[in-house]
Design a protein that fits this description.
The complex is a heterotetramer of chains A (636), B (185), C (100) and D (343).
Chain A: H1 8-23, H2 28-55, E1 64-74, E2 77-85, H3 87-110, H4 117-136, H5 140-158, H6 165-196, H7 201-211, H8 217-233, H9 242-245, H10 251-260, H11 265-272, H12 274-278, H13 281-304, H14 308-328, H15 332-359, H16 377-391, H17 397-411, H18 415-440, H19 448-453, H20 459-474, H21 488-497, H22 509-536, H23 538-547, H24 549-556, H25 561-607, H26 615-635
Antiparallel strand pairs in A: 1-2
Chain C: H1 4-24, H2 28-52, H3 57-87
Helix pairs in contact in C: 1-2, 2-3
Chain D: H1 2-6, H2 8-45, H3 61-71, H4 82-99, H5 119-140, H6 144-175, H7 180-186, E1 190-193, E2 196-199, H8 202-205, H9 207-220, H10 232-235, H11 245-270, H12 283-302, H13 310-338
Helix pairs in contact in D: 2-3, 2-11, 2-12, 3-11, 4-5, 4-11, 5-6, 6-7, 6-9, 6-13, 9-11, 9-13, 11-12
Classes of the chains: A mainly alpha (636), B mainly alpha (185), C mainly alpha (100), D mainly alpha (343).
Chain lengths: 636, 185, 100, 343
């Protein structure tokens, strides 16, 4: 068997980072762009080759493991830098490199006039390296390396325009909130190591059923801790607060990191550890509830936001909620399916929003847009595709995956979750079409200056939009419902999830059709309401807003969660720190340090007399010392 | 005959070493030091260390001392001025302490390591001294040997950096020493 | 033929002369030469013991000492030359910039 | 007389004395006639006849030259460092003479001063001491041209000594010994290439080393085209400008003795030493023939090539010869390793 050379996939972006650092500005903008895009494109091709190799294997043997080198070996413990490709990571690696490549290309146009062009691609490539490491790792430790790496890059890229205070603050917030999640992940990892004696996936998963009793306290705690890590990285309740603020970063970053790839790491991790999670039904319950709650909660906030990127950010949080919902009800395949389709249409939405922002000279407020459909035809068309896709209208991608999640929830005995999901779908369709209408339809509310500079984006930005639009349409066709023996996507992932004995949702055909109908009706309802309120009768919308003013205010202020956290977490901590500073540090630590200093100063004032500065004197002392030493020896 | 040669070389060595310390002209000191090194090389030969003896001449006499002479000539140093009460006192102190150290060293050596004539039977001068040194250098002492080469490299870089001064930022240095008045006695 | 003690005595004397040179002279170059004398005294001990113990290790060490000495002289002389450029003197008792 | 030969110490001393006498006087004779040969050859190269007044074909010319040198006035510049001024010319001759101790002129103990097992190292030690004569002579003269010549020569000799030493390592690797006698023995083989019998001289295995060695030999002996220390055109004779009479003669003697000794080394290392066809008795004849050829080569080059500029000289030494000789060592070692040590 020819080796698939997995290590090359993450190594390529890393090499690009190194080259970028070494060659510096000598590359020029063009060179930097080619280097960055070329590395990621090549990584995509290598990944594709590896996946083709993988697909040629018999179904039961579809795992490729490649040990690059042994990182450390301490007693029994051994950590390898080794990579694993199985159907699950194959999906992830293709999504990451493919969407990543498109976004890289897009960025060359979007960032073309930025002063820190080179730094941007440096971070972006570094992110690709970390993300690919995360996805391809074959043990928890290496995954954690990637996990932290993407966190770092996310921080760097959110604060990319560090001269804007808001960007710096947002970066800091993302970093700190993620730390809490990482803490959980780390603890979960420790527990796994303590009980299973290894961090290698294969060994842990093989050992888990024997070590942990079904539903035991240990495995529940461990998986809950892992899930805490996932909520941090994937922006779920209670740690979702950083993601909306992360929109301070450049829009391609929002598309790549905060929509398509990094934030899905939590879902990926859950799917990867499905063996463990299925041993802990309680945790799965928690996952499902939190997923559903986040889906609904974030969707409602999305209704009231006026910043185009924030709407998308809350939409991302909400859609991630759907994915966790799927995992929580045991439908990991559906979760990963939604992850993939979401990557396509959400990246497209962000990139389209970026195109709009680019066209309007950095205007992000929906209230100052409108009527752009004729001025930005390409952007409009692709955005429309994405909006329909996320709203869940067949045959667009979002429909298939969302429907699968909902029917799985229903079939696996979570009608409450199903209901929340359907309501969420209505709201999703509503706020997405609100965004679409406010942006592209109706009268133009542009400022005069923005109107003047209005222009369609360059080809390098349009091309990725078109490709992603195509993917948003056809991306779901790999998983049509009602297939005998599961659809193609499910069959592909079966080697991974088969061991977990996923409960087949054996619904009668009639029920299935009914569920499909319900979800289509929900989507259409949301769309219709949106059109009525914002396009046909704007005045009725205003009236409605006034009638439900408290609700509107609550959504606009995002349920005051940030303020709540500020009051119960941030302020007490700041107070404690302030006390520590004023008393402990200023008085005790400084006192001790200064005291040592004063003492030494006094002593050295005496000793300084010996330092004459003449080498001869030193030599004399030295020789005297030698003489004394010899005398000492002579006496014995 | 070897002991006589040894004594001769030793006498030459001590005498020239003393001249190094005593003579006021640095060039003369340097030349006596060359002589001392050559006599030491002779002693090495007598002790059966041919390789070290030859390297002693090549490295010390052929390279290091030439460098010394270069610097002395470059700085155009003539006789050292050694006068004044303070200097005289320091000199006296130096002699006393130096003599003390020598005396102590001799006493110490006499007590510990003077067991009479060499206890070991004299091994015949095995012909492969160079070979033996080389084998030791390239097998057991390979790592130190490589480290030494790095040390030399570092020294080389250091000397070039020091020798260049601080480039354009260097303060206006003293006018270059007048080479033409070399050898003023 | 040659007792070990002779070599050791000679080495001690040589080392003492080196110490005296360092203590007595004010010319940095001559002090440097005296240090070389001391290094050579040490080398002599190495060679003498290498002979007495019939082992080549002592000579290997001499080799290393010579290398270090060469490096040291090169750097030291460069420093002295720079010093002369700055202060126009090589007398160590006229240089006390490091006085405490 | 018998007592003399029975006492080992005395007999050793006696034979040493005999050898010293032969070498010393022989060298003096060879040098004086080498000078004659140089003038004669130079003359013919420049379409003149050269010295031809003193004796038949001018053969007595060297004697006349030496007599003239003896009777010239001694001159010591004011403010010269007198002791060193006197010592310097001696230093020029002594190392050159010492080198002859190790040269095997022919087979057998009688024809070699002493077969040191570090012979080659001794040669390098002596050639590194040769720097002092020129440096000190230049410095002690209290003359700027002399000083410049002295400094130039020390830099030059130190630089080229490296390449010279490294170029001989290939030979050492082949012979596996530092003893010159062993090196000559290692070249005693005769290879048969069909009907041709080729002597296995090192020059055939180490052509690059031989070229480097010869170039550095010119530099080490301060001969044209590397005669910058003297450089009549620029430094009006360089380090020995202030020297006259027999002191000047000693410098001259030293230079030519160096040429001879280095040629002897070249013959020994690269040209098979005393090896040649015919009985062992003829060894010394072969040696002297090869030596004569090399000496002619020295003179030939001197009157053929112009002098190098100083920077060219340094560039050649450090940037061409040194890397080449290092490469030669690597290649030789590689070849020996690959062929299992019986090249």
């Amino acid at each position: 068997m020819t080796l698939p050379l997995l290590w090359i996939v993450p190594a390529l972006p890393l090499a690009a980072v190194a080259l970028n650092l070494l060659l510096g500005d000598r590359l020029g903008r063009r060179g930097t762009a080619w280097l960055a895009c070329g590395a990621v494109g090549a990584a995509f091709l290598f990944a594709l080759r590896a996946v083709v190799t993988l697909a040629s294997l018999p179904e039961s043997a579809r795992v490729l493991v490649e040990n690059a080198y042994t990182w450390m070996r301490v007693g029994e413990f051994r950590a390898d830098v080794s990579f694993m490709l199985d159907p699950l990571s194959a999906v992830m690696v293709l999504v990451v490199t493919g969407v990543g490549f498109l976004i890289h290309v897009y960025s060359t146009g979007y960032m073309a006039h930025d002063a820190s062009f080179r730094r941007f691609f440096l971070y972006l490539n570094l992110f690709m390296f970390a993300m690919l490491t995360l996805v391809l790792a074959d043990n928890f430790l290496l995954m954690f390396v990637g996990w932290e790496g993407v966190g770092l890059c996310s921080y760097l890229l959110i604060g990319f325009w560090y001269e804007r205070p808001a960007a710096g603050e947002a970066g800091k917030k993302a970093f700190v909130v993620n730390r809490i999640g990482d803490f959980g992940f780390l603890l979960g990892m420790f527990m796994l190591f303590a009980w299973c004696g290894s961090l290698n996936y294969e060994r842990v998963f093989a050992a888990a059923p024997h070590v942990f009793p079904l539903g035991g306290a240990v495995i529940t705690t461990a998986t809950l801790l892992l899930f805490l890590g996932a909520t941090g990285k994937s922006a779920q309740i209670p740690l979702y607060v950083w993601l909306p603020d992360a929109m301070e970063g450049p829009t391609p970053v929002s598309a790549l990191i905060h929509a398509a790839t990094m934030v899905t790491a939590g879902v990926y991790m859950l799917a990867r550890c499905h063996v463990l999670f299925q041993l802990a039904p309680t945790t799965l319950e928690v996952v499902a509830v939190i997923g559903a709650a986040t889906a609904l909660f974030a969707a409602t906030i999305g209704i009231a936001q006026n910043d185009i990127k924030r709407v998308l950010a809350y939409s991302t949080v909400s859609q991630l909620g759907y994915m966790f919902m799927a995992c929580g009800v045991g439908a990991f395949t559906a979760g990963i399916f939604h992850l993939m389709t979401h990557a396509f249409f959400k990246a497209l939405l962000f990139l389209g929003a970026g195109s709009v922002i680019h066209a309007l000279s950095d205007e992000q407020d929906l209230r100052r847009m409108g009527g752009l459909s004729s001025r930005l035809p390409w952007t409009h068309a692709t955005m429309l595709v994405a909006t329909i896709a996320i709203a869940g209208i067949p045959p667009f991608a979002g429909f298939f995956s969302k429907d699968e999640i909902l029917s799985a929830a229903f079939a696996n005995g979570h009608p409450g979750v199903w209901l929340v999901g359907v309501v969420g779908a209505v709201i999703t369709a509503f706020y997405m079409f609100r965004l679409y209408i406010l942006c592209f339809r109706g009268p133009s509310r542009l400022s005069h200056e923005a109107e003047h500079h209005l222009h369609e984006s360059p080809r390098s930005m349009i091309a990725p939009l078109v490709v992603l639009a195509a993917l948003s349409i056809v991306g779901g066709w790999v998983g049509p419902p009602m297939q005998e023996g599961g659809h193609a996507f499910e069959r592909w992932l079966r080697p991974v999830f088969a061991s977990g004995a996923e409960a087949p949702h054996a619904l009668p055909a009639g029920t299935e059709w009914a569920l499909i109908a319900v979800s289509i009706v929900a989507a259409v309802a949301g769309i219709v309401v949106a059109f009525r309120l914002y396009l046909q009768k704007p005045e009725s919308g205003t009236a409605l807003q006034e009638r439900f003013a408290p609700l509107q205010r609550m959504w606009l202020h995002k349920y005051w969660v940030d303020e709540f956290y500020d009051a119960i977490v941030v302020r007490p901590l700041a107070a404690l720190a302030g006390w520590c500073w004023r008393f402990w540090d200023s008085v005790i630590v400084d006192g001790a340090v200064n005291g040592v200093g004063y003492t030494l100063e006094g002593v050295s004032a005496l000793l300084r007399l010996f330092q004459t500065g003449f080498v001869g004197t030193y030599a004399l002392f030295f020789a005297l010392g030698v003489a004394a030493l010899l005398l000492h020896f002579l006496r014995h | 005959m070897t002991p006589f040669l040894f004594l001769g070389f030793a006498a030459l060595l001590v005498a020239s070493a003393l001249m190094v310390v005593i003579h006021r002209n640095p060039v003369t000191s340097a030349l006596f030091l060359v002589l001392a090194f050559c006599s030491l090389a002779g002693i090495y030969l007598l002790l059966g260390a041919e390789f070290v003896g030859m390297v002693q001449i090549i490295v010390y006499a052929g390279a290091i001392m030439v460098l010394f002479l270069f610097v002395i000539m470059y700085l155009n140093l003539s006789h050292d001025v050694e006068s004044g009460v303070q200097i005289a006192m320091r000199r006296a102190l130096g002699w006393v302490i130096g003599a003390l150290v020598v005396a102590e060293g001799l006493l110490l050596a006499g007590r510990r390591w003077f067991p009479g004539p060499d206890a070991h039977p004299i091994a015949p001068l095995h012909p492969g001294n160079t070979q033996a040194v080389g084998e030791a250098l390239y097998t057991r002492y390979l790592f130190p040997f490589e480290i030494t080469s790095i040390l030399l490299l570092v020294a080389m870089v250091g000397v070039i950096v020091i020798g260049r001064g601080r480039g354009a930022a260097a303060p206006p240095a003293a006018p270059p020493p007048d080479l033409t008045r070399g050898g003023g006695s | 033929m040659i007792p070990l003690s002779w070599s050791l005595t000679l080495s001690a004397v040589l080392f003492g002369i080196g110490i005296i040179g360092v203590l007595v002279r004010r010319n940095a170059l001559v002090i440097f030469m005296s240090i070389e004398l001391m290094l050579n005294a040490a080398n002599l001990v190495f060679v003498a013991f290498s002979r007495a113990l019939d082992s080549v290790d002592g000579q290997v060490f001499v080799f290393f000492v010579m290398t270090v000495a060469a490096a040291e002289v090169a750097v030291g002389l460069a420093i002295i030359v720079n010093l002369f450029r700055l202060r126009e003197t090589v007398f160590v008792d006229e240089i006390n910039l490091l006085k405490g | 007389m018998d007592a003399l030969f029975q006492n080992p110490v005395l007999s050793t001393a006696f034979w040493a004395f005999v050898k010293i006498m032969i070498i010393l006087n022989g060298m003096l004779g060879i040098v004086s006639y080498l000078i004659y040969a140089e003038r004669k050859i130079a003359g013919h190269m420049q379409a003149r006849t050269g010295p031809n007044r003193v004796g038949p074909l001018g053969l007595l010319q060297p004697i006349a030259d030496v007599l003239k040198l003896f009777f010239k006035e001694e001159f010591i510049p004011t403010d010269a460092n007198k002791v060193i001024f006197h010592i310097a010319p001696m230093l020029a001759v002594i190392p050159a003479l010492v080198t002859f101790v190790i040269i095997p002129f022919g087979p057998g103990d009688a024809l070699v001063g002493t077969d040191l097992n570090v012979g080659l190292l001794l040669f390098f030690a002596m050639s590194s001491l040769g720097v002092y004569a020129i440096t000190l002579g230049g410095w002690a003269s209290n003359n700027k041209y002399a000083l410049l010549g002295g400094l130039r020569s020390s830099a030059q000799m130190i630089s080229y000594e490296l390449a010279m030493g490294l170029s001989t390592i290939g030979v050492l690797l082949l012979a596996g010994s530092l003893s010159l006698v062993d090196i000559v023995h290692a070249q005693a083989r005769v290879m048969h290439l069909g009907p041709l019998a080729i002597p296995a001289w090192n020059v055939l295995f180490q052509p690059l080393a031989f070229v480097i060695f010869m170039i550095t030999a010119f530099a080490e002996t301060n001969r044209a085209p590397f005669d910058l220390p003297e450089a009549e055109g620029e430094l009006i004779a360089g380090f020995h400008i202030e020297y006259s009479s027999m002191k000047f003669g000693l410098f001259f003697l030293g230079e030519f003795m160096n040429v001879i000794s280095i040629s002897c080394i070249a013959v020994t290392l690269f040209l098979g030493g005393w090896n040649g066809p015919g009985p062992q008795m003829l060894g010394i004849v072969w040696f002297l023939l090869k030596l004569a050829a090399l000496l002619f080569f020295f003179i030939w080059v001197r009157w053929t090539y112009p002098r190098l500029r100083y920077d060219q000289l340094m560039n050649l030494g450090w940037k061409v010869l040194l890397p080449l000789s290092l490469a030669n060592i690597v290649l030789t070692a590689l070849a020996i390793t690959l062929t299992g040590g019986n090249a």
